[in-house]
Amino acid sequence: MDESQVVMLQGLGGTIALFVGFWFMIQLLDGNKLTNKLLLALKQNLEVKLVRRKYFWQPNYLAGDLQGFPVKIFEYSPSDDSMAIAIRITLPRQTFRFYMKKKAKRNFTKSEILTGVDQVDQHYLFKSIDKGHVIPFLEHKEVLQILSDYGANFKVSDTIEIRRQYLYYFFPSTNITEKRKARFLKAVDFSLRLASYLTKYNHHSS
Predict the structure, then answer these.
(1) Strands of the sheet with 166-171, listed across from one edge
(2) What is the mean pLDDT of each run of 10 residues along the chain (206 residues)?
(3) Which DSSP string do the residues of 141-169 spell out, in sequence order?
(4) What's the pTM?
(5) Which domain holds residue 42?
(6) Nearest alpha carbon to residue 69 among 47, 94, 93, 89
(7) How far apart (Å, rounded) are the C-alpha atoms in residues 64 and 78?
(8) Residues 159, 86: contact at Cβ < 8 Å?
(9) Number of domains forming the structure of the chain
């Protein structure tokens, strides 16, 4: 390969890299437009503010204090081909690790924790490495009541995870219709109520 061919290949490689970089930037900007539309729709019913990115590759998000808890609502990617919305509530102190999923009708995965309340055990699948704390927490009537009341709104695609000082509610889709928006707002309210009971439990158990 002579020098002219090397120069030509280098130029071609630079052009391809420039094109890929430009395409990536367009995808990010288009994604941010969709995220902004979604966040603005959710913001209408919540006392939060839209925090705009400092750099073009950073996503915007919603943030504010709701019922005394710092809350952040943001878009995240659980996989390369899907996007979702996360509700993150910061708790006053670090708590136990806890994981909740919807119990599917044909799900052969067994819940690690049973409450003895059919309305709860039929809807939720609980997992935790801190059962010594989770089981007493789930024995509270108020906690069992909000879990029972929320069961119909909790879908197979939803996930609740409590780790360190955060409560996360992972909502499955960024395509928010009016119906999904109403369900999302219920998810925010439920998360705040659960965070409130977690805080009370941590205070009394310390």
Answers:
(1) 49-51, 61-66, 69-79, 82-90, 166-171, 159-163, 98-102, 124-127
(2) 51 51 39 66 88 75 96 79 84 93 74 90 92 93 96 92 95 79 93 96 75
(3) HHHHHHHHHHGGG--TT-EEEEETTEEEE
(4) 0.80
(5) 3-205
(6) 89
(7) 24
(8) no
(9) 1
